[in-house]
Amino acid sequence: MNLRADDGLPMSQRSSEGVARLLRKAILDGRLQPGQPLRERALAEELGISRTPIREALFILQGEGLVGLTPNRGATVRTITATDIAEIYALRAVLESHAAATAAERIGEADLNLLEEAHHRLERIGAHGSAPEQADADLQLHATIAKAAGNQLLRTMIGQVHAFTVTYRSQYPYSPEQVRRANVQHRAIIDALRDHDAARAEELMREHVSWSRELALTHFTE
C-alpha cells in the first residue's frame, strides 16, 4: 500500500479517525495514487489492526471526496476530473465569499494577526516550496478566514471542500508568477477584512476563487 513502516499506528491512534488521518496523509503526499485500490484486509494487516476502523476510515474519506466506494469492488483513491474541479470551486466560491463577508463584519485583532502570519508563511514558501507545502499554507489562510466568520457549520463545510481541493493542489505547484498573483489577491482580501468592508471582501474572495478555478482547470481534460 506504499505506507512507510514508521507510519504504523500506536494503540492510542488505532481508531477510525487515526486511520483516516494516516490514509489522508498518504493520499495527499502521493504515496497512494489516484485509482489505487484500498483493500481492507491488506491495510489491516499492514497497520496491525482490525478491519473495522479501516472500514470506518474509508467512509470518512469518502465523505471528504478523497476515496471512492463501489459496491462489489471496494474502495479506491478518488481520481479527480475536470467536472469535479469545476463543481468544487463553484461551491468554494459561494461558501468562501460568504465567509469573507461575514468575517469582515466581526473579525478581531487576534484573527487578523493569524491571517498575517498565514500570509507571511505563503510569501516565505513562495515558488520554491513543494506543491504540498504551497497547498497547506494556502488553505491555512483560507481556513483562518472561515474560522473568523464565527459560523461553525460554515467552517465545517469549507473544511470538507478544502480536503477535496488539497488533493489536486498537492500535485501541481504554483509558478513564480502564479504565486505572486495569489499573494496579491490574498493581500487585498486581508486588507478588506481589516477595513471591515464586507462587500469588498466578498467580491475579492469570489474573484480569487474563480481565478484559482480557471488555473486548476488547465491541468485537467475530460
From TrEMBL:
<dbReference type="InterPro" id="IPR036388">
    <property type="entry name" value="WH-like_DNA-bd_sf"/>
</dbReference>
<dbReference type="Pfam" id="PF00392">
    <property type="entry name" value="GntR"/>
</dbReference>
<dbReference type="InterPro" id="IPR000524">
    <property type="entry name" value="Tscrpt_reg_HTH_GntR"/>
</dbReference>
<dbReference type="InterPro" id="IPR036390">
    <property type="entry name" value="WH_DNA-bd_sf"/>
</dbReference>
<keyword id="KW-0805">Transcription regulation</keyword>
<dbReference type="InterPro" id="IPR008920">
    <property type="entry name" value="TF_FadR/GntR_C"/>
</dbReference>
<dbReference type="Pfam" id="PF07729">
    <property type="entry name" value="FCD"/>
</dbReference>
<dbReference type="InterPro" id="IPR011711">
    <property type="entry name" value="GntR_C"/>
</dbReference>
<dbReference type="GO" id="GO:0003700">
    <property type="term" value="F:DNA-binding transcription factor activity"/>
</dbReference>
<keyword id="KW-0238">DNA-binding</keyword>
<protein>
    <submittedName>
        <fullName>GntR family transcriptional regulator</fullName>
    </submittedName>
</protein>
<feature type="domain" description="HTH gntR-type">
    <location>
        <begin position="13"/>
        <end position="80"/>
    </location>
</feature>
<keyword id="KW-0804">Transcription</keyword>
<dbReference type="GO" id="GO:0003677">
    <property type="term" value="F:DNA binding"/>
</dbReference>
